[in-house]
Amino acid sequence: MSAETGQWQKWRRVGLVLLMSAMAACSRTGPSTSAIVAPADEAVVVASFNFPESVILAELYAQALEEVGVAVARQGEVGPRELMAPALEQGLVDLVPEYLGSALAYL
Predict the structure, then answer these.
(1) Which partner from 13, 31, 46, 91 sits 20 to 30 angstroms from 20, CA to CA?
(2) How far from each other are the two terminal CA atoms of the chain, in whole angstroms?
(3) pTM over the 0.85 mark
(4) Distance (Å, whole) CA 25 – CA 2
(5) How far apart are CA 72 and CA 61, in angstroms?
(6) Superfamily of domain 40-106
(7) Where are the domains of the chain?
C-alpha cells in the first residue's frame, strides 16, 4: 500500500466518522416525556429586538421550548435594548436572545 493510498483511506475514515456523527446529532427523537411543563396561563414570554437576526433567534428559542411542552407567548420586534431591559426587569418578558458583548456594553 502506497503512502498516498494510506492517507486517502485515513481521511475517508475520518470523513465517514464525521458524517455518521452529524447524522446521529441531527436525528430526531420524540419530545421528552419528562419535560417540565408551564401551566397554560403562565406561558414563557419570548421577545426579540427590532432586527431580523433577533427575530429569527427568538423564534428558534420559542419553537424549541414548545417542542418540549412549554407554553410560549411571542413578542416580536419589541424594540431596542433601551426598551427591552426595563421589560425584562419588570417581568414583562422572560427570554430575549442577546449578544453577550452587547449586553455587557449596555450594562
Answers:
(1) 31
(2) 62
(3) no
(4) 35
(5) 10
(6) Periplasmic binding protein-like II (3.40.190.10)
(7) 1-30, 40-106
